[in-house]
Amino acid sequence: MKQLPSADTHLDAAQSEEVFGWILDGETSDDEIARFLVDMSARSETAEEIAGAARALRARLIPIEAPEGTVDCCGTGGDGHHTLNVSTAVSLVVASCGVPVAKHGNRAASSKSGAADTLEALGLDMDAVGRTAEKTLEKLGICFLFAKNHHPAMGRIQPIRQKLGVRTIFNLMGPLSNPAGVKRQLIGIARPAYVPIYARAKATLGTERSFIVSGDEGLDELSLAGGNELADVRDHDFEMRRVVAVQANLAHAPVEAIRGGDPLHNAKALEALLFGTPGAYRDAVLFNAAATLIVAGKSDDWTEAAEMAAEAIDSGRARKLLTDWIELAQ
What we know:
With 330 residues, the protein is an alpha/beta fold. It has helices spanning 13-24, 30-43, 47-58, 86-96, 115-122, 126-131, 133-140, 147-150, 158-164, 169-173, 195-205, 263-274, 280-295, 302-314, 317-328, and strands at 71-75, 101-105, 142-146, 184-188, 207-215, 228-235, 237-243. GO terms for molecular function: anthranilate phosphoribosyltransferase activity; magnesium ion binding.
């Protein structure tokens, strides 16, 4: 069995890719992996380590074909706020605006309800979405890429992550390893100060355009509660800026206003949202959908993009998309 590096060892991208290859290929023990992941998280992962680890995961994934311009919007998880599933709702809204969305996600690792849990409670068969991903993406402009279906190497890692119950570098690797090879993304991370580090990892890997965002309170998405750190990544470079809800003509609201629960609770809230229920959850979805539409090139104005997202909900298109998706993904 391979011996993983000590906690104080910082790896360059090539070393990280090699080490995470060992981990993903089962060449080291579960106890070693747990120790290594916790130690790395405690000292904070570097951009080089994240990029290298993501390359190792990318090299072992099962890809799908995707239309040009396909996007993804997701959070790294592990923020501890247990909010409603914002990025899952955003995926439906953005796809309803004519932007193909390959939603990459998983079951909850350190939260109460992950994207897969909530979509399943809404009626999507998690086995079927894997078989029909390319079909639904082509015909409806949306698919769910259930991590377990596309990252077989993660099979032995998931129980370790669940046992640890805390965020690790695997939270950071997932969004960088979308099986559709998306070139445009909105990625939320749970550490505001970490946005430029993660953006550097994304820039190392390359992207047409991506936003890396984090709410000031440590929310892994754009937050209504206060300010947000945002890294605008294009190609192999990025610039930092601040963004607040008022820029999208949306009201501020505390994080508690979008507190979620178990999969059934979150699914009911998402259904209500799609039927036009107003409130902080809707506004959080509009804010993050606006960011995704900007990244996708549909608009360059926050208010205009939020209005496009609102129209997709109020017209019933987003709700119909979910119904059609459940029917087609059989």
